[in-house]
Amino acid sequence: MAIFVGIFLILPGLTGIHSISTVSYVTVEKGGSISIPCFYESKYTDNEKYLCKGCKWKICSYEVKTNQYNSTKYLISDDQNQGVVTWTINDLTEEDTDCYWCVMEINHRPDNGKCFNVRVTGKGDATLYVDSQEVTGFIGDQITIDCHYRGSKQIKWCRTGGEGHTSCIEDSGKIDETKVTINRNTPGVITVTMSELRERSSGWYWCTDEDLQMPVHVTIKERPTTTTIATTTRQSMTISSSTKPVNHTCVSQEPTTEQTGTHSSSSSHLLSFIIPLCLLLLIVTVAVLTWFMLKRRKSPATAEDEQTVTYSTVTHVRKTTAQINTEDEADVMYSTVFYIAQQNTHQVEDENVTCSTVVHR
Question: What is the value of pTM for the model shown?
Answer without folding.
Answer: 0.58
